[in-house]
Design brief:
Radius of gyration: 23 Å
Bound molecules: acetyl coenzyme *A
Order of helices and strands: EEEHEEEHHHHHHHHHHHHHHHHH
Number of strands: 6
Oligomer: single chain
Strand order of the largest sheet: 1-2-3
Amino acid sequence: MTTAEATRTGEAKLAHDDDAVDLPVVTGTEGESAVDIGHLRAETGLITLDPGYGNTGSCTSAITFLDGEQGILRYRGYPIEQLAERSTFLEVAYLLIYGELPTRAELDGFIDEVTRHTLIREEMRHFFDSFPTDAHPMAVLAAGTVSLSTFYPDAQQIFDPVAVEITIKRLIAKLPTLAAWSFKKAIGQPYVYPNNDLGYSANLLHMMFSVPSEEYEVNEDVAKALDLLLILHADHEQNCSASTVRMVGSSHANLYASISAGISALWGPLHGGANEAVINTLERIVADGGNVQKYVDRAKDPDDSFRLAGFGHRVYKNFDPRARIIKAAADRVLRATGADDQLFEVAQRLEEVALHDEYFVERKLYPNVDFYSGLIYRAIGFPKNMFTNCFAIGRLPGWIAQWKEMIESRETKIARPRQVYVGAAEREYVSIEQR
Ligand code: ACO
């Protein structure tokens, strides 16, 4: 499948000094239009300046549509609400990567292939042994992912569809094993091998929480809740980590290397790391007597660097549809697991206060996907530093789909932004004695 191209629908005029230039305007399926500035520099000597790329489309894409004003999120045209209710994570992964919902036979074949690759090479155990016990699981996951390319050099063949297919299956199969082992390493328990009789999310729970000395039965409700979280995380168009995967991949680095870079980007607290930061904040509020208003006031104070993690989004300026689904699921999981819901109660109060506060209303700061996801992960039993690993497992099909679309597109070039230089003008070298 090659990338659908946007249709040229008009022209925009840019006047500069005494010159004017016509720039093509292209329009996507849902009516969003963009000025194509591909020839701007050649024709005028100008580049565009857009720190943080808030107003820059880096590609055309047929994978995910989101409308931040209306709170819409669709994978390949299917509303997230329908997928969350009726689909499974591996089916969604298939949809994102191959573009269509699979038939029963296609889905069975996909599950079968993914399941066959869940083991990691035995030599990789030594990698886990050599990391410090307190290593952050995201660091271990990123390192483990890129090191897969040492075992599977066929991943270098990024234009060979057979090699790409096996790499995709290996990645989806092995990421949960790497994630679970990074956790086992941290708590000093033996690594648990995958059980291929279990479903994808159930297997992750098994590798995380079972020990060889005891029977472990996966709670199906919990596995379902985890599957739901993975679906909600599966893609989000050109976010920081997906753009990183595309950028690294645009140099023709292999898929393991590109995904590892995406994992590192996701780690940051302004991106996927926010779910960990949310729980830290909620715990702080509880330990501080539950004074929600105090933390809302701190978040509003321009002289205080404190921000309410889990609030605000670069794109959603109305509500994050994933947050609505997750909030309802958090309620169900907390009931099913009987987990202490003091943090949930504080989270709900915090949301209530913030949603009615002028500062948050004015800036359109709403709870995002990470506001409630951490509460579910916590209720399931994941430690805080594993939350973002789970997010990475969920986001993997999206990253793969973005990488595949980029590699298959005729429009792709190596990603290489320009800059406006503001440093010193040319000057003479001064010898060290004279400085
Ligand atoms: N708490 C308090 N104030 C906030 C928050 C927040 N969580 N988020 C934004 N603001 C304020 C900013 O200070 C700024 O105020 P100002 O106009 O008075 O200067 C205004 O709202 C706009 O914020 P920006 O940072 O310019 O918005 P941007 O789109 O660049 O950032 C981001 C979006 C990074 C998500 C931001 O809202 C944030 O830091 N949120 C907390 C971290 C978080 O939850 N990240 C997860 C995002 S979802 C995901 O990646 C999976």
